[in-house]
Automatic annotation (TrEMBL):
InterPro entries: AAA+_ATPase, P-loop_NTPase, Signal_recog_particl_SRP54_hlx, SR_rcpt_FtsY, SRP/SRP_N, SRP54_GTPase_dom, SRP54_N_sf. The keyword Iron does not apply. It comes from the Bacteria. Keywords: Cell membrane, Cytoplasm, GTP-binding, Hydrolase, Membrane, Nucleotide-binding, Receptor. This is Signal recognition particle receptor protein alpha subunit. SUPFAM superfamilies: Domain of the SRP/SRP receptor G-proteins (SSF47364), P-loop containing nucleoside triphosphate hydrolases (SSF52540). Transmembrane segments: none annotated. Gene3D superfamilies: P-loop containing nucleotide triphosphate hydrolases, Signal recognition particle SRP54, nucleotide-binding domain.
Length: 293
C-alpha cells in the first residue's frame, strides 16, 4: 500500500518510543516537540501540538499511551488540508504549474499529463519557462514521450504569449487541458512575481475559476524553506493546491502540515518517484503515519 516505504525507509521510531514511556517520563513534552520538529514540523506548530496534548492530559482526559498517541494523531490530522484538483468535468482547463527550479516541476507536469491522459482527456503543455532553454527542451522531451502537443517559442519569449497561444488553441477545440510551465528563478524574486502576475492576468482574461488552477510544487526534502517558497507564490497569485514532490525520499512530510497550518494552502498530490506513474492524491492518513512513526 505505502509504495514509498519499500523504496526508502524513512527515519523514525522516536515518537513511537516516546509514547511508550508516557507523559510522566522526564522531559516528555520537550522531547515530543523535538521529535515533531525532526519530522519537519515548524517549531511553533510542534509547540501548539504538545500544548494541546498537555492540556488534555492534565485535565485527566487521556491516560493510556494509546490514547495519547491517538489524540496527537487526530490533532495532526485536522491540521493537514487536502484538495482534489483533478478536472471536474470535460471542459477546457488550464493548470499553471509553479515552483522553484529543481523542485520537480516538469516531472510533475508529465505525471499529471499521464494521469489525465489515462483518464481519457486531451492534454497539452505550454513551455512558459522561457528563461531557461533547458526547461523548454526538457518539457519537449516529456511531450514527445507522452505523445502530446507542446506550445513553445524561443528562449526569452514572453511566457504570457506562449500560454495565450496554448489557451486559444484548447478553446478553439473546446476540450482539453493545458498544463503551463513557469519560471522558478527565486534569486530574482520581484521580477519573477511580476512575470507570474502578468501571466495570471492574461489567463484570467480568457478563463474563469474553477477552470483555472494554480498548482505549486514543493520538494518534500527542502525543510522549512518550503514554507517561505509557498508564501511567495501564494502571496503573488493565490495557490489552489500543492504537489509534495519527492515524498519517496527520507523526508517525513511534516512540511505539508506546516504549510497547511501556516498558510492555509491544501495539498493535492504527492510525488513518490521519478516515473510518470509516481503521483497520487495526497493521502493525509499516510502522512500522519509517517510523522507519527
Ligand atoms: P524542475 O526544475 O522543477 O522542473 O525539476 P525536474 O522536474 O527537472 O526534477 C528535478 C529532479 O527531481 C529530476 O531528477 C526528477 O527526476 C526528480 N524528481 C521529481 N519529482 C520526483 C519525485 O517525486 N521523487 C523523486 N525521487 N524524484 C523526483
Amino acid at each position: 500500500m505505502f509504495k514509498w516505504f519499500r523504496k526508502k525507509q524513512k527515519p523514525g521510531g522516536l515518537i513511537r518510543r516516546l509514547f511508550q514511556l508516557g507523559p510522566h517520563s522526564e522531559g516528555f513534552y520537550e522531547k515530543l516537540e523535538d521529535a515533531l520538529i525532526e519530522a519537519d514540523i515548524k517549531a511553533s506548530i510542534a509547540m501548539e501540538i504538545s500544548d494541546e496534548l498537555r492540556n488534555s492530559s492534565q485535565a485527566g482526559k487521556l491516560s493510556s499511551p494509546e490514547e495519547l498517541r491517538s489524540f496527537v494523531r487526530d490533532v495532526i490530522s485536522q491540521m493537514i488540508l487536502t484538495v482534489n484538483l483533478d478536472p471536474e468535468n470535460n471542459d477546457n482547463a488550464i493548470y499553471l504549474v509553479l515552483g522553484v527550479n529543481g523542485v520537480g516541476k516538469t516531472t510533475s507536469m508529465a505525471k499529471l499529463a499521464r494521469r489525465w491522459l489515462d483518464a481519457g482527456r486531451s492534454v497539452s503543455f505550454a513551455a512558459g519557462d522561457t528563461f531557461r532553454a533547458a526547461a523548454v527542451d526538457q518539457l519537449a522531451v516529456h511531450a514527445g514521450r507522452l505523445g502530446i502537443k507542446i506550445f513553445q517559442q524561443g528562449q526569452g519569449a514572453d511566457p504570457s504569449a506562449v500560454i495565450f497561444d496554448g489557451l486559444e488553441s484548447i478553446k478553439a477545440k473546446g476540450e482539453g487541458i493545458l498544463l503551463a510551465d513557469t519560471a522558478g528563478r527565486m534569486h530574482n524574486k520581484s521580477q519573477l512575481v511580476k512575470e507570474l502576475q502578468k501571466i495570471d492576468r492574461v489567463i484570467r482574461s480568457k478563463v474563469d475559476d474553477p477552470s483555472y488552477r494554480r498548482i505549486l510544487v514543493i520538494d518534500a526534502t527542502t525543510g522549512q524553506n518550503g514554507i517561505q517558497q509557498a508564501e511567495v507564490f501564494h502571496q503573488a497569485l493565490g495557490i489552489d493546491g500543492i504537489i509534495l514532490s519527492k515524498y519517496d525520499s527520507r523526508a517525513r512530510g511534516g512540511l505539508a502540515l506546516s504549510i497547511s497550518r501556516t498558510l492555509g494552502i491544501p495539498f493535492a498530490y504527492m510525488g513518490t518517484g521519478e516515473g510518470y506513474g509516481d503521483i497520487s492524491p495526497m493521502d493525509p492518513e499516510a502522512l500522519v503515519e509517517s510523522i507519527m512513526s
